[in-house]
Amino acid sequence: MPHKGCPHQCSFCNQKSISGQLNGLTPEDVHSAAKKAMENPELKNAEIAFFGGSFTAIERGYMLSLLKAAAGYIDGERFKGIRISTRPDCIDGEICSILKEYKVTAVELGAQSMSDEVLFLNHRGHSSQDVENAVKMLKSYGFETGLQMMTGLYGSDEDESLETGRKIIALKPDTVRIYPTVVLQNTHLAELYKRGEYVPQTVEQAAEICSKLLLMFHEAGIRVIRVGLHSGGNVEEGYLAGAYHPAFKELCESRIYLNKIFNELKNKPVTQGIIYVPKGATSQSVGQKKQNLKLLQEKGYNLTVKESIDLEKYQVLVKENAYDT
Q1: Cβ-contact 138, 95 below 8 angstroms
Q2: Nearest to 175 by CA among 222, 116, 121
Q3: Domain assignments of the chain as residue spans, ordered by start
Q4: Statement: residue 51 has pLDDT above 90
Q5: Does 15-246 match 255-319 in CATH topology?
Q6: Residues 237-282 pLDDT 10s
Q7: The predicted structure's pLDDT at residue 24
Q8: Within 13 A of 128's CA, how many CA atoms are on the CB side?
Q9: How would CATH label the architecture of 15-246?
Q10: Are 257 and 303 in contact (CB under 8 A)?
Q11: Are 317 and 287 in contact (CB under 8 A)?
Q12: Is 255-319 CATH 3.30.300.20?
């Protein structure tokens, strides 16, 4: 739903580039998408999700027509509920009651930053207090609540991003999405970038910050459901600069595992042996194109990676001999 309902033009936003869609969504589109999904015999506990604009700010009759179309498919088995995204300042008691009536179960808020100065500089049009108020209200109505944040915004730095992460943790959302800022054509940020007033993060800089955020949220028990813009949404079409990578989350997780491995090696005089990692974490541990193993070899370590069912996510154990378990 590109730009539908958005009362502001944020510095970074070009929803056509992000969503790859320009035309408005119709109830018929909702019916078509739901019916197509139902062709999958394994469909279970799915959601019908509306993303792109500020769903609760669109014209009321239009919003209700979309909700009505989607609600008819919520049977608690194939489709468990409806997920929407909106702005923190577009949530109130009346809206929450409507969303409940039409079987919305999850609401994500575009917080982006918990710094009022950064929000102002990027033309967000809401405050950090609006985020806190909206989260409190959504939780009181029983919605699964998600928060979306960005790193590398105009006026932001690593300390601000990490502080935003800490403030989000304090709000105890159910889920989080982390988006490194990407400069897209036809945005205010693109003008700042072309004038040299904004220097975007590199992929490496963003991965360093986002790896720290990922670990913070994990340790706080908050599920991160997205890191980086989706590669299938025409982002490449409008891309000018910034931290965009089609496998950005894996880059971040590889950095987490590399840092964990080095921390383990600090306390153990091991130069040859095995790195034990959680089941399914081999790819992230060795790094893209085995970059992590290459870095370890450059520092004199000859280590292989093996998975262990006894380790939890992001845990690492280094042992000297292959026969150690």
Answers
A1: no
A2: 222
A3: 15-246, 255-319
A4: no
A5: no
A6: 788 999 999 999 999 999 999 999 999 998 887 889 999 999 999 9
A7: 79
A8: 15
A9: Alpha-Beta Barrel (3.20)
A10: no
A11: no
A12: yes
